[in-house]
Predict the structure.
Amino acid sequence: MRIALVHDYLKEYGGAEAVFETLTDLYPKADIFTSFYAPSYFGPHRSRLQKKWDHRVHQSFFKYIPFAHKIISPLRLLSPLAFKFFDFSGYDLIISSATGAYFPNAVNKKSAKLICYCHTPPRYLYGLPTARNFQKYPLLKFLANIANHFLRLADFKFSQNVDQYIANSQTTAARIKKFYRRSAIVINPPIEVPLKLTKSGFSGPQRTRDSDAVGGQPEGSEDRQKPDECFYLTGGRLARAKRYDIAILACKKLNLPLKIFGRDFAGFEAELRKLAGPKTEFLGEVTQSQKETLFKTAKAYLFCSDNEDFGMVSVEAQALGCPVIGYNSGGIRETVIHGKTGFLFDKLTPDSCATAIQKLNQSHLNPQDCYRNALKFSRPVFLKKIRNLVTRFSR
């Protein structure tokens, strides 16, 4: 089959883009279609991704709009046109990667079948927490509510263009059922899991997404925790919906060291720095190998995201034996086994998070349990399920 791969826009590198990269690796000859392509924002992943994608990417007319990458939200109104104007004649299968930002399922698929890997229906349309806080501006809120009404109607219309939905979690599958009235197959995102976890440490990490050494060799076994380097960890895209403020205030209350990695989004890092105590450290963007080292040496990863769609980083942590403390909502409930691979807290408050941290400090969780749990979400499992699904569509 001739396959086309579609993604909302390629302007950052987060969980959705990591999944999309895996799809582009699985189908290396497939053309890539996106509203606009801005590799300068890929950070430490730029060199690797440009080698893979530059010669395959087809951009919409958005590339002719000055500073398009800076006006992402307003361009949502035009995004259906961006995908409708692509010519998909001659393709047998289109696989769209929908992050909920734009409307890639608006494609004119012609005779092709359309499979949508849905990371989430648009959060801003259905009352879920988002990265930007427009609600504090009354006029903007009023105008956004009017626009969102018509965007919801359009979103539902485009959702019916899909032949088969794939959801990244049961949480997202339930949203697809509720908002689109469609059923979805759940295929969890691919996680890089070490080949082996031993009593003395970890060996053989499969670094397929490492800007330093793609497919590189392990750095050697390391102890799970060094007493003189005890710290807690959080990070990812530094956006409001991720609620890093909860982790900061919880660790500040308990006087615990906290390291935060990730790229700033919409100026949120400045707000977080004002909340941070003397034991909070901001690391900025890190490479895959640097992130692995952090997971290997952290006491626990703090995941305070509000109704996260899946939460790949929580599984990445467990894959390296790092337990997770998470807010009991969304996809985290599907990836953390309470009391075995981490602890979930029920209220999105610093006190509730701090209580969960104290529970972890009083427990003796086994890194092997974290590792075994992560194996269910490994890259080979993802690839096998995607291949099987595409094979069914090729018959």
Notes: Confidence is low (pLDDT under 50) at residues 199-228. Residues 196-375 form a domain with the Rossmann fold fold (CATH 3.40.50.2000).
